[in-house]
Amino acid sequence: MELGRLEYLQALVTEFQVTDSTGNKRRCSVALTMSSVSSHSRPFSLAEAKEQVLANLANFAYDPSNYEYLRQLQVLDLFLDMLTEDNETLVEFAMGGLCNLCLDKTNKEYILEANGVEPIINCLSSSNEETVVSAVTTLMFLTTPRSRAQTTALPVVECMLRFSLSANTRLSNLASIFLQDYCSPLQVEEARNLSKHTAVGIPLPKD
Amino acid sequence: KMAAGSSGGPGAPCRHHAQLGACESRAKYREGWRPRAVKVYTINLESRYVLIQGVPALGVMKELVEQFALYGAIEEYHALDEYPAEQFTEVYLIKFKKLQCARVAKKKMDERSFFGSLLHVCYAPEFETVQETREKLQDRRKYIAKATNQRDCFVLKKVEGPKKTASENSEHDCPWSTSGSSIVSNWDPSCFTSSPGVSHNTAYLSGNQNQSPLTSSHYDNNCAEISGYFGQNTSLTPSVHPGGHTPPASLMQQRMVPACNGIDRFMPRTTHLQERKRKREEGNKFSLIGTTEDNTEVVIGPQLPEIPKVDMDDESLNTSATLIRNKLKEVADSVSTSVEKPESSSAKPLVKQRRRI
User: Which of residues 19-58 of A touch B (CB under 8 A)?
Assistant: First the structure.
């Protein structure tokens, strides 16, 4: 195992964890000392530091050779936790991280076991374009014979129907692929009928 | 700002085209040598299509395309007249045949000076057709399956045929289950062997390779990203990169990407070096116990190792290596003939000098 890289990843994750007084590791708090911060001209926020670290990890998540490390460091849990943050940027980066690593079988199973599909579906209603796009792709990647009941549930299909009509090409392309490749015509039909009658569903991302 | 309701189609300025300001607050241990903005790259953001802004309006399209063609075959290119551009500059769209070529091109050409103007290169996935996006995602699937030595339990519905009629589809409730007969796996079974001929940008061989410390990365330098990891450059301009254990700071280096030679298997440079070393040692092994070409000669004891014949896997490098080798031989021969008389009373036998190339 290459220590340099693991240490580096570990340092990143440490910034996200703090051991509280009872000795338990609490996730999502930044333990950032002044010494680890470079001298810079303008003040920065804790939020920014978190964002940088998360972006770093999310980019690491693109490379399969890092998956073992990321699992060891529980970064998958971190990504899932970040999906419910108020900070839109954190959600975006975490969603991107999940999108990057969810194709790996082990990661996929882990996410599904951890009930990750639900918060990802919720990301479909984000006003952040990247978050939504990552969420659509992640749902596709997470669809298995066992999980498809969840990933292609009626509200999801209905949402994809609306996305497929979007002027945002990236979004409409992905939604079309979702409908064509991951849903049965019956499901699509059902969703079409639903949207005709009610306004309930997952809202489109705002302008 | 692109959102679901906006009326801009491809060609309209999108948020992901915007060049983000460089991040100034990065912790020291994560600082690279170039100012970088904060961005996460996913397969959705990457594309065979690249948008090039800041091209000086001097009628240099031909030169521009030639420059980009260095990174791989180009399928299409044209100017985007309707795209907002700074005064005296133009915007171009270039479509590469392969995604990894687009990656290298973006990395290399972004923030490069071109005819006096600074280019801004970014991906333009919004130009993709549905099928192109689909193929992009499938390639990503294949790549992960190969890189992690896994076979995904989920296979897609048949996608390359024409759209099925409703009656065909209703046959199978779950056409995408593994038992479905309408399934086509787009995967090449050779994917799962370590056969050469597969080119993917991050060809880090597998998670089990604990030898090479280098991970390849997919994303690009400046113009908005945090470098998460380290890559290898075996592209057109082989440059030296630190191998082995790199300190965290240098993990921030820009990504290196292989040449878009679809035939060659991409290997990180240290793996190349290790391979050559291994071949060399193997060659030495035989030269020690070895046979002579001339079978009439009786070989007593181990042969002296010859100067190893290194195969550099490259025509020009091999030529150079051969020239050097021959020169060395020349020099060694001339030295051994000139030193006939023993230099000292101990009369040590002349040992062939092994020079490191």
Answer: 32, 36-42, 44, 48-49, 51-52, 55-58
Query: What one-character-per-residue DSSP string does A148-159 give?
Result: HHHHT-HHHHHH
Angstrom distance (rounded) from CA B26 to CA B31: 6
pLDDT tens digits along B170-226:
333 333 433 333 333 343 333 333 333 333 333 333 333 333 333 444 443 333 333
0.85 surpassed by complex ipTM: no
**Could you tell me if B9 and A169 are in contact, meaning their C-beta atoms sit under 8 angstroms apart?**
yes
* Backbone φ, ψ for residue A103 (5° rounding): -75, -25
Burial A70-97 (b: 16+ CB within 10 A, else e): bbebbbbbbbbbbbebeeebbbbbbbbb
For B28-127, CATH gives 3.30.70.330
With beta carbons under 8 A apart, name residues in chain B contacting A92.
Answer: 40
* Res. B101 pLDDT band, cuts 50 70 90: very high
Which CATH number, 2.60.40.10, 1.25.10.10, 3.90.79.10, 2.60.120.430, labels domain A1-22+45-123?
Answer: 1.25.10.10
Average pLDDT of chain B is: 64
Suggest the residue from B15, B16, B25, B217 to mutate for an interface test with chain A (most A CBs closer than 10 A).
Answer: B25
A37 confidence band (pLDDT: 50, 70, 90): very low
Domain ranges of chain A: 1-22+45-123
Please state, in angstroms and rounded to a whole number, the distance separating the CA atoms of residues B7 and B283.
Answer: 65
